[in-house]
Write a structure and sequence with these properties.
With 229 residues, the protein is mainly alpha-helical. It is built from 8 helices and 2 strands. Helix 4 packs antiparallel against helix 6 and helix 5 packs parallel to helix 6. It starts with a strand and ends with a strand.
């Protein structure tokens, strides 16, 4: 009778990394977003230059703390990407989707770190007093942390969904949810021309946290091999 050999993928747990990423990102967000809707609130791109400048002039410490935690969040996101791609390759998957996921995940992490650093610059003493410089930095940070986040995140999710779903490493329902989120992420680039589509960015971002956590825990790490007698 043949003996079963169990091979286990070695590396950080992607589910735990996804939880750390989610906690750090939303901790940073909590300093600048009020769920009660009360002011002061982080200004949207539709606000006037005066409103944007006033916020950063008076809430610079909250912005600084947001930048700190969101820069930190980029690290576990990058590690999550490396861990998941490594695990897919462990199961001998050589499809293009694996490398699409790698590209998307690393680009998301880099853009998140860059947007956090731009936010840090905006919170630096004296920057908010220069309205022209502040406004330029604000829109740059919003673009990098908005569309620059949701579009590559969609690629990360799509790459994992297709390769994991078609090889039955993740459930079909998780694959279809992932493809829906990925489509939202890719379509969010249209908000560059049509601002009314900005809702696609949070629609990708926040459900995406839960999806990454689910994949991190569902994706198997053990492979069974049956050697010849």
């Amino acid at each position: 009778m043949e003996n079963t050999i169990q091979h286990t993928h070695r590396g950080p747990h992607p589910g735990i990394l996804a939880i750390v990423f989610t906690c750090l990102f939303n901790t940073g967000l909590s300093f600048v977003i009020s769920l009660s809707g009360k002011s002061p609130y982080y200004p949207g791109p539709w606000e006037s230059a005066e409103v944007i400048a006033a916020y950063f002039q008076h809430q610079s410490y909250d912005v600084l703390r947001c930048a700190f935690f969101q820069f930190g969040a980029a690290i576990p996101l990058g590690l999550f990407t490396a861990a998941v791609v490594s695990r897919l390759q462990f199961f001998k998957i050589r499809a293009t989707g694996v490398y699409i996921a790698l590209f998307g995940g690393l680009m998301t992490a880099f853009n998140l770190a860059l947007s956090a650093l731009i936010l840090w610059v905006m919170a630096y003493p004296g920057i908010a007093q220069d309205t022209g410089v502040l406004r330029a930095l604000y829109y740059m940070g919003f673009a990098v942390g908005g569309v620059g986040y949701s579009v590559p995140l969609g690629l990360l999710i799509a790459g994992i969904s297709v390769t994991g779903g078609l090889t039955k490493l993740i459930p079909k329902w998780l694959m279809w949810v992932g493809l829906f989120l990925a489509a939202c992420g890719e379509l969010s680039f249209l908000s560059l021309l049509f601002p009314k589509l900005l809702f696609l960015i949070p629609l990708t971002r926040f459900p995406g946290f839960l999806w990454l956590i689910a994949v991190g825990f569902v994706l198997p790490k053990k492979e069974l091999a049956f050697p010849r007698p």
